[in-house]
Amino acid sequence: xLLQKAKICxxxxxxxxxxxxxxxxxxxxxxxxxxxxxxxxxITATNSVxxxxxxxxxxKREPDVPYVPTHETIVDEMxxxxxxxxxxxxxDLGSGDGRIPITAAQRFGTRGVGIxxxxxxxxxxxxxxxxxxxxxxxxxxEGDLFEQDFSEATVVTLYLLPQVNLQLKPKILAxxxxxxxxxxxxxxxxxxxxxxxxxxxxxxxxxxIYFWRVPAKK
Length: 218
Prior knowledge:
It contains 5 helices and 7 strands, in the order ααβαβαββαβββ. The longest helix has 56 residues, at 2-57. Helix 3 (99-108) links the parallel strand 1 and strand 2 (111-116). By secondary structure, the protein is an alpha/beta fold. Helix 2 (72-81) crosses helix 3. The protein has a 7-stranded mixed sheet with strand order 3-2-1-4-5-7-6, with helices on one face. Residues 1-59 have low confidence and may be disordered. The protein has helices at residues 2-57, 72-81, 99-108, 119-131, 162-173; strands at 89-93, 111-116, 138-142, 155-158, 180-184, 195-200, 206-213. The protein folds into 2 domains: 1-59; 72-213, Vaccinia Virus protein VP39 (Rossmann fold, 3-Layer(aba) Sandwich), CATH 3.40.50.150. It starts with a helix and ends in a 5-residue tail after the last strand. It is globular and about 40 Å long.
């Protein structure tokens, strides 16, 4: 009788242990399933955010030209060659930190507009205009040079790249006859400049300035 009771107790103990083990395993499996599900959801959400960010970042065209500031010596000579005066309307294409329109406004009272596709540069230029106290004369706008209207300009200044100059040439040639155009370092292909000047900056580098007037329409 005692032996039979002992067997029953042993059977119950083993069964209880097995039941606990099975229950623990089930909980562990459920926990693992939950963790995997949550991890998958998190990855999916992260990828979704990343993809959306990529779309937003890629929605605007990259700048055609890297930002390289024009030395003040070159700015002075460009304004001199174009014979800029207070009655002019100056458009700076690829205006960077805004130094050309700001200098013209300070020196001659010229009204100026700068166009740049980079919002960081536009913000910087507008801040520089505020510091120079010429916001009544100049403004800087974020825009694509190939889409913006700058036909009201009497003077156009550029420091771009050769291929960009060539792409803009038809638009510039369609402007009012007599519009003055000054480019730093790069020409306009077969459109011969009226003047060309070489300037050596304090660092010893050679810079080239080209000047044209938009011809009368044929």
